[in-house]
Write a structure and sequence with these properties.
mainly alpha, 165 residues, 5 helices
């Protein structure tokens, strides 16, 4: 019986006001947050961050496809003589393949809510934007589409806001 009494006193202490020692009514009991202010509600991204992650993955897949096309069959692209940024199309294939892989990795990490992935995503989108600007003479429509997509990625990742807790 003594053990039951001790448990009852501990319960009474948790439902009493510490200053007045009066029992708290259910409306007076302060609610406790389910998560700490430093912890997000979900480990997954949400809102505009999901859009940015999706755009990163789409751009990564497009870069990989463009890179494979340049590596396997470089007759797909127009060879422009005497262009100031002219490189061998095989080199462009490797550039696109590498950028695509980095964008895919960053996209999936952004989707998981990783902070480093947002920074890497912005950096890789900037590199992709510059690379596609230099690639315009080889495939103008594709390059302009990727440049626009990279701009949207940078905007979506840069305007991230943590939800109010």
């Amino acid at each position: 019986m003594v053990d039951g009494g001790d448990d009852r006193r501990e319960t009474d202490r948790s439902t009493t006001d510490l200053l007045t020692k009066e029992p708290l009514v259910s409306t007076q009991i302060p609610s406790r947050p389910m998560t700490s202010p430093d912890q997000r509600e979900s480990p997954w991204a949400n809102g505009l961050t999901v859009v940015a992650a999706t755009l990163l993955v789409i751009a990564g897949v497009w870069h990989v496809l463009a890179g494979v096309a340049a590596l396997v069959h470089d007759n797909v692209y127009i060879a422009t003589p005497e262009y100031i940024y002219s490189f061998d199309l095989t080199a462009w294939g490797w550039v696109h393949l590498l950028l695509g892989a980095l964008q895919l990795i960053a996209g999936f990490a952004v989707l998981k809510g990783q902070m480093w992935a947002r920074v890497v995503g912005i950096a890789v989108a900037c590199l992709s934007l510059v690379a596609n600007f230099m690639f315009i003479p080889h495939y103008p429509l594709w390059s302009l589409l990727i440049i626009a997509l990279d701009g949207a990625i940078i905007w979506a990742l840069a305007t991230y806001r943590r939800e109010a807790t």
